[in-house]
């Protein structure tokens, strides 16, 4: 901040937003609302995937590239059964996406063997450090 004092207020605003978001995530009602939004999103995608191979047609598009990280995060949290496999078209879609060479290059390699645990550990460490500093 010493190098760019004019950015200090923007930095503090972003930091405050991050802390506010963490506080909101501790509110059970907000967590419930977020889960409901996720379920609606996945249900809408399931309906669309009943008609098309990918989210907006028969070709992989930016919409898919934006949606796949949500599925990956669900997988990372070991919640696939609750959110993905209970939706047959979503499960089929996710398997299709995971067979793409680009998926393997960008995401898949982090979920094989020991790398999956490394990814888990990095996420856990990040959240722990963030929580620790968020309280003090």
UniProtKB/TrEMBL annotation:
Protein name per UniProt = GST C-terminal domain-containing protein
Q: Which organism is it from?
A: Ananas comosus var. bracteatus (red pineapple)
What GO molecular function annotation could you give as one example from this UniProt entry? glutathione transferase activity
Domain GST C-terminal positions: 1-117
What Pfam families does this protein's entry cite? Answer: GST_C (PF00043)
